[in-house]
Amino acid sequence: MDQRKKLAKMQRELEEKEKEMTPEEIEEMEKNIPEWKRNALVMSGEEAKPEKKGMFGKLKEKISSTDAAKKFQESEDYEKLNAMRANYAEFKSNLKEGVDNT
Questions:
Q1: What is the percentage of the chain residues whose pLDDT exceeds 70?
Q2: What's residue 45's pLDDT?
Q3: Distance from C-alpha of 101 to C-alpha of 83, rounded to nearest angstrom
Q4: Secondary element (H or E) of residue 77
Q5: CA distance 45 to 58
Q6: Quick count: other Cβ atoms within 10 Å of Cβ 72?
Q7: How many Å is the Cα radius of gyration of the chain?
Q8: Secondary structure string (H, E, C) spanning 22-64
Q9: What is the distance, to the nearest Å, from the Cα of residue 63 to the centroid of all Cα atoms in its chain?
Q10: Within its chain, how far is the Cα of 69 from the centroid?
Q11: What secondary structure letter does DSSP report for 68?
Q12: Whole-angstrom Cα distance, residue 66 to residue 75?
């Protein structure tokens, strides 16, 4: 358990450090990564997941291309919904991190 806390803390520190780095510093850091390690890096988040379009994906495309859907996406309610989704995602990640650290 302590090992996970240490790893989570190290990961947070690394992410904070990367946010403060300039693009030149990031490029220099990436140059110092050995070739064998560079090829072993795994993409994270949505980039790593290939997009699957099943029956509901196709249906979603058809619905989102309608005039009513376009009007809704331009509305204030849609912006509120997206803000709520972002808050929920942040809460969920904070909760997961809290559970992992305890």
A1: 83
A2: 52
A3: 27
A4: helix 76-101
A5: 23
A6: 13
A7: 20
A8: CHHHHHHHHHCCCHHHHCCCCCCHHHHCCCCCCHHHHHHHHHH
A9: 26
A10: 25
A11: H
A12: 15
The tokens for 68 are 């009513």
Calpha distance 60→62 (Å, rounded): 5
Residues 6+ apart with CB under 8 A from 77: none
Q: Which residues contact 69 (CB under 8 A, 6 or more apart)?
A: 63
Domain ranges, ordered by start, for the chain: 1-41, 52-102
Q: Which residue has the tokens 């790893």?
A: 7
What span, in angstroms and rounded, lies between the C-alpha atoms of 90 and 74?
24
What the block records as the tokens of 12 is 């947070």
What is the rounded CA–CA span in Å between residue 97 and residue 56? 31
pTM of the model: 0.40
**Phi, psi torsion values for 90, nearest 5 degrees:** -65, -45
Query: Alpha-carbon distance 81 to 36, whole Å?
Result: 44
d(CA 50, CA 52): 6
Structure tokens given for 38: 């560079």
Predicted confidence (pLDDT) at residue 87 exceeds the cutoff of 90 = yes
